[in-house]
Amino acid sequence: MKLVFASNNPNKIKEIQQMLPESITILSLEDIGCTEDIPETADTIEGNAILKANYVTEKYGYDCFADDTGLEVDALNGEPGVYSARYAGEQKDANDNMDKLLSNLENKFNRKAQFKTVIALNINEKQHLFTGIVKGNIIKEKIGTKGFGYDPIFVAENDTRTFAQLSLEEKAIISHRGLAVKQLIEYLLNI
Fold this sequence. Notes:
CATH architecture: Alpha-Beta Complex
Number of strands: 7
Order of helices and strands: EHEHEEHEEEHH
Shape: globular
């Protein structure tokens, strides 16, 4: 089975492809000739995943899935949330985003947060949503060199390491994206 993953983020593509069984191959947006930036104008994580999946299905005619992920911080009323990728500006720089988040949390005692991933799957003319959530805490400094995004400052509950200290395999087991992808795989293997 071949499915388009509505992303050109090589980190996400690699992370998801290594979780999938060999019977499922994913194509990137580049693979199908989609070079435009798909607008992410929804005000929810679910909405953005749906927008991206629908864009590919409607414009290119492929069965596909898209994800959107946000980091929701309790003390900041759920920020950065749907704006996680561009929290510190349109340049979408992970270090700038982390620096802004750490600065906004400077005098906050509550550092609880959760990562949320929603995957929208368009297949056989139907849409299905899969959600993965992992709760944890934002630490005060960046630790680790693996992963991407906010991984160096996020520690999942019942762990002592940041996501940036975990191998891809370790992260896939406990991460928000890993949990959503497991649901996606389970569905795909049973259709």
